[in-house]
Every structure is written in structure tokens, then in C-alpha cells.
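Quick one, T. Sequence first:
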Amino acid sequence: MQAEIHPVAYEAKVTCASCGTTWVTTSTKKELRIDVCSNCHPFFTGESARIMDIEGQVDRFYKKLSARQTYVEQQKSKEEASNSPDRSIDDLELSPRATDALKKAGILSIGQILAKLGEGNAAMLEIAGFGQSSLTAAKKKLRLLGFEVPEVPDAPKPPKAPKAAAEPAAADAPEAEALGFLQD
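C-alpha cells:
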């Protein structure tokens, strides 16, 4: 070993400030003062459980648990409110013309729109200012919000009546051709 590179070692007296216990050890200082020793530290004495309860660790746990339950309940009520049929039709974000037409017809909530759709598409299309594109947009937005849109089949349309003027001309075509009315 090299000479004069090592510090001087002393028989140091260690004193605990908490309990006053003293003992001797080897150190580079002649005297040591410490805050807590193994005689008074809660971990070594077994009093740590009592101290933790005094600090309210159990109370803090229950506080966190109740805060979590409150948060979960708030999220659940928010989700239920988002799927509530009592929501305003403004939440659908339809065109201003379609929204105004629905409001003039007395339809102010999503539940009322769903009830009207239950009557069929024709019932919605009867509303002045509410056309097919508005109906399609409303159905799409209702589905996006998680609502089940009732699909009621529309009443079958009556078959178109044959045109009276077109049929005689087709039936009389051979006669007209014989008479020379039709020319190539």
C-alpha cells in the first residue's frame, strides 16, 4: 500500500438523538450524532404497523376507494345520459334547415324522432322542409350515437297505371304502317 493516502480511523462514539443510546464504532470522525437508531426506529421495534394506522393509511385507502367508486358512477351516468332519448335534436347536428323543420313540427327530442321513425319514413318525409337527405343523415347520426333506428317497411306503392296514349299507338302500328303513316 502507498503511504499517506488512507484517512485516519478513530474509535468514534455514536449517540442517538431520539433515545440517547450510545455505542462505539470505527470512523474517520471522532464523534457521530444520528437522528434514529435501531433501538428506536419503528421498523426495528415492530411499531411500524401502529404508526401507519396512526397516519391514516387505512383511511386514505378507503378514501381512494370511494373516489374510484364515485368516478365509475359518474362515468356510468354520463354514458346513460348520452344514450337517453330525452336528448335534444340539436345533438344530432343536422343541417339548420332540417333542425328548424323538426322544431316547427314539434319534434324536440331524439325520442320523438325515433317514435316518428317507427311510423315509417313517409311520416318523417311529410314534415315540411325535411327531405330524403335529411332523413338519411338523421338515421346515420342516430346509429352513431348508439340508438336503434326502427326499420318499418313503407307501404307498397300502387302499381303505375299504363299510359293510355302509348298503348293504342303501339297496337295500331301495323295498321298505320299499312296506311303509310310511318315512313322510314
